[in-house]
Amino acid sequence: MATIVASSKPVTVDPLRHSAPLGAVLAFLGVARCMPLLHSSQGCAALAKVLLTRHFRETIPLQTSALSEITTILGSGDSLLAGIDTVADRQQPELIAVITTGLVDAAGEDVRRTLRLRTAGPPVVLAAVSDLGGGLEQGYCAAVEALIAELALPRNGVSIDDQVTLLPGPVLTPLDVEELARTAQAFGLRTVVLPDSSRSLDGHLDADWDPLLSGGTPLSAIAAAGRSAAVLALGSGLATAGRMLAGPEAWTVPHAVGLDASDALVAHLAAVAGREVPEALRHWRSRLTDGLLDASGVLAGRRVALALEPDLLSGVAALLTEAGCHVVTAITPTASDHLGAMPCDEVVIGDFEDAEDRTRDGGAELLVASSHGAAAARRLGIPLLRLGFPVVDRLGAQHLTSVGYRGSLRLLFAAANELLAARDLAPTPPTTSREGPC
Amino acid sequence: MTGQGSPGRTTVRVGSAAGRADAGGAESCSSGESARRPSCPLPTPGAASGGCAYDGSAITLVPVADVAHLVHGPIGCVGNSWETRGSLSSGPTLYRRAFTTAMGEHDVIFGGEARLREAVLDVGRRFRPAAVFVYLTCVPALIGDDVEAICRDAAAELGIPVVPVLAAGFAGTKNAGNRLGGAALLTHVIGTAEPSYTTAYDVNLIGEYNIAGELWQIQPLLDRLGIRVLSRISGDARYAELTWAHRAKASMVVCSRALLSLAADLQSQYGVPWFEGSFYGVRATSEALRGFAQVLGDPELADRTEAVVAEQEARVAARLTPYRQRLAGVRAVLYTGGVKSWSMVAALQDTGVEVVATGTTKSSPDDVTRIRGLLGADAQLIEEGNPRDLLRIVRESGATLLAAGGRNRYTAMKGRVAFLDVNQERHQAYAGYDGVVALAAEIDRILSSPVFDRVRRPPPWAAGTPSRTLDNPRVPLGLEG
User: Fold this and answer.
1) For position A301, which CATH number holds?
2) Contact A132/B at CB under 8 A
3) Domain check: are A297 and A383 in the same one?
4) Which residue from A98, A200, B352, B401 could staple onto B332, CB 3.0 to 4.6 Å apart?
5) Domain's final residue, options B172, B207, B226
6) Does pLDDT of A313 surpass 70?
């Protein structure tokens, strides 16, 4: 059990937290032919776009209402409507996602009222978020809730017996999402995945260039998301979204990382499907248990520090603890209910400066964090296992999986290999005053 | 303006009354004040590209290495942008840290001034910077936080300079922010201290950001000429050297329209003459070196410069010859903004690459004139390069290389076209004579990849392609694609 501690500095140094609008954009990039539009000054979109582009190594569709001082003060509704019309015309999206920011929040704009003035064009969903509060998780989850509220059919209709709705959380990589869907499909279940980054942000080469991403959850699938036999959410912030679709029946867990959490996911899917666990999954489980044994020699007793988004933080802590590691510090940008149950003494709501200080104080031998942790790891002289967002200084961010038996095994080996690569395995001779034989 | 050469040559422009008018005129649409004029284009909602004024001010000032750069705003402003730029420092690394007040709803309701004051004092005391630069952003600008007063009080309390940078994002484009960053230096920093000694050959470099170490490619050339860089604005700079930039005998504005106004103001307020030039390409580098001699008005320096230019041009020509042979016939589309739209054309031409089109999104009429001079009257100018248009232009012009900023890297990749990063996020230095060789080597390396042909090939099972199957085993391996 962990105590939750909030960093009390008057200034944020090397932020771990990302803005909520960025999280909302991330969610909308997993919806088919969706064009996200930040209601903001143009820099908000430009800087977010550059960051997402560097992480995913994809062209990222993202536009802005491009507010100026004058439009902000005199009322930004016209700019928003003009921006919507422009992207409807240029990118031909099937859905436009409007994401508010701290600027329109502070200006007190009634964005819903503005959107009601529209008479034609593609449907619009509104994620009413702000970078004045919350982080990546809150923005992402608000976007998912907005999609459900606007586009899902009411849940009191006929349910589809062999269909399951999967809500992947903000920390799942595109290949994590694919792993989650395949795990459900292995039980013969049909899946609705919302949002589905597995074919939109996974890094693939299409025949032709298009301003919008290919892949993503089709609008028809969002409509049917509430008609499934079961709803599974992999992300603690998605509890509300899950309840919107399935009431109290929705199954929400913070993560499916590590043997125990993967077992829980698989057991739940087996119960939903009413089937035995397929052989292929049993075999992946045996690979993970074998891997845990192989890695235990390297990882047992090792001191690790984590600086990650809340769901990923508790997931990685669970896996590495299963392998025998000792989590000496865990830093996360925003609070979450499940953090108190983590297998470490304390969880700090803080920034990379807090992470660096506590990693040093705790004598950690490995830091698990995004690319922004590299400078701290270098100063501390310990290896960095890159995970989370953004990973911009290595290729293959989409492939950094952690979900299920297969994802956990990848992460386990990656952690062990960082320590193996960093450690000088050659024994050093003792210092002695006696002269050598020659 | 004077120093204008014949079309087709890269030339230096020497500051003068006319140069100053130009600095005010050509750039007026991206200045903070005149962005409000109805004649100046505002970004189009739904079709905007490029950063904001805050982004521009950070590009101009964050390279100052021993300063703590504190962003007063919500988390998104610095959260999305720190560690993205490639300016290097030979010493302090404080500039790489990201400091922010991370304003919340509470600050909007009660005002962000108290939080900002505490943040400045905390940063000043714990990190012991040479100065603190405080960047205003949209939200505190909207709610009316008095950043200047906070900075004044904090400076008195800390005993170090605390400089307000008033370039809120919604004040304009990235160019406007570059300019407002320069204005902050002029108002609060330049002229506040004196150098321990001066020489007749003290100069400022304005708009040189030491991307990937480019300053370090230029510095040895200036050393050989006996030119001392008094103030680097701002690549690899220390705060102290900015304070005495007014004592330079000349300024060179390196590849920046937005900072022409800073140079012009240094001339009008302190009498420092200036010229504009570029260190991209052999011809441009030589012209830049001659520019110093011309502006400093020293015949002996001019002679020394000619000797160094002749020696360096001969040396670099020999090194470039094999690349120019290999790159002959290679066509490139360049898409970058402002001054780089012509300075990079010249550099690419020096490597032997034919530039068939270039972007003019942020270019002034004067930039366009220079492009015409370099590329001829038929040059294709790309006014607005959305990715689809860029790929079409690449295809239609027979280009095999797209040279652009990082955001278009994956435009090129999705179009199966080779890409060269020419903007601030890159990790390769291309300045000066040796920089041209590095540029040629990099283009050669990128184009030598077999991957572009390979990924264009259809898979063996695609319709109309013979494939090796059980029924058709005679298709030789390797011809399946």
Assistant:
1) 3.40.50.1980
2) yes
3) yes
4) B401
5) B172
6) yes
Overall domain count for chain B: 3
Of B52, B77, B455, the CB nearest to A42: B52
B433: in domain: yes
CATH number at residue B443: 3.40.50.12380
Q: Which residues contact A220 (CB under 8 A, 6 or more apart)?
A: none
Residue range A188-201: mean pLDDT, rounded: 98
Q: Do A59 and B411 touch (CB under 8 A)?
A: yes
- B79/A19 CB distance under 8 A: yes
* B403-429 residue pLDDT tens: 998 889 999 999 999 999 998 778 899
pLDDT digits (tens, 9 = 90+) for B30-85: 444 444 443 356 789 999 888 999 999 999 999 999 999 999 999 999 999 999 88
A357 and chain B: CB distance < 8 Å anywhere?
Answer: no
From A95's Cα to the closest Cα of chain B, the distance in A is 14
Residue B390: phi, psi to the nearest 5?
A: -60, -45
Is A224 within the bounds of a domain?
Answer: yes
Query: Residue B234 pairs with which residues in a beta bridge?
Result: B208
User: Within this chain, do residues A25 and A117 fall inside the same structural domain, yes or no?
Assistant: yes
- The phi-psi region of residue A7 (left if phi > 0; otherwise alpha if psi is between -120 and 50; otherwise beta) is beta
Provide the domain count of chain A: 3
Q: Which residues contact B156 (CB under 8 A, 6 or more apart)?
A: none
Nearest to A332 by CA among A383, A369, A385, A302: A369
- Which range of residues forms the domain containing residue B253? 194-315
Element at B266 (helix H, strand E): helix B260-270
Instruction: Please check whether residue B466 lies inside any domain of the structure.
Output: no
Would residue A155 count as lying in a domain? no
Rounded to the nearest 10 degrees, what angle do helices B432-447 and B215-225 cross at?
150
**What is the distance between the alpha carbons of residues B293 and B303, in angstroms, rounded to a whole number?**
9
In which element (H, E) is residue A314 found? helix A310-322
In terms of domains, do A286 and A333 share one? yes
Whether residues B67 and B96 share a domain: the answer is yes
Verify that B215 and B163 share a domain, yes or no. no
- Same domain? For A120 and A185 the reply is no
Q: Are B323 and B449 part of one and the same domain? A: yes
Q: Are residues B442 and B339 in the same domain?
A: yes
Structure-block tokens of residue B20:
């100053």
Q: Which two tokens stand for residue B248?
A: 């330079």
Q: Please check whether residue A432 lies inside any domain of the structure.
A: no
Instruction: Confirm whether B479 is domain-assigned.
Output: no
A4 belongs to a structural domain? no
CB atoms within 10 A of CB B3: 19
ipTM, interface predicted TM-score of the complex = 0.95
- Alpha carbons within 13 angstroms on the beta-carbon side of residue B189 total 28
Listed residue (A406, A146, A418) closest to A299, CA to CA: A418
In sequence order, the β-bridge partners of residue A417 are none
List the single residue in B with minimal CA-CA distance to A10. B119
Q: What CA–CA distance (Å, rounded) separates A356 from A377?
A: 8
Q: Which helix (H) or strand (E) holds A359?
A: helix A352-361
Are the beta carbons of B348 and B355 closer than 8 angstroms?
Answer: yes
As a whole number of angstroms, the distance between CA B474 and CA B329 comes to 38
Indicate yes or no: CB of B54 within 8 angstroms of CB of A42.
no
Instruction: For residues A192 and A264, state if they share a domain.
Output: yes
Query: What residues of B are in contact with residue A211 (Cβ under 8 Å)?
Result: 386-388
User: What residue numbers bound the domain in which A223 lies?
Assistant: 160-203+212-276
pLDDT of residue B387: 87
Residue A228, beta-bridge partner list: A160
Residue B155's Cβ-side half-sphere holds a number of Cα atoms within 13 Å equal to 17
What residue has token string 């002679």?
A: B303
Structure tokens that stand for B463 in this block: 């319709």
- Burial (Cβ within 10 Å: 0-12, 13-18, ≥19) of residue B61: buried
Chain A nearest-CA distance from B272, in A, is: 34
The mean pLDDT value of chain A amounts to 95
Asked if the structure places residue B353 within a domain, the reply is yes
Paired tokens of B220: 């040895």
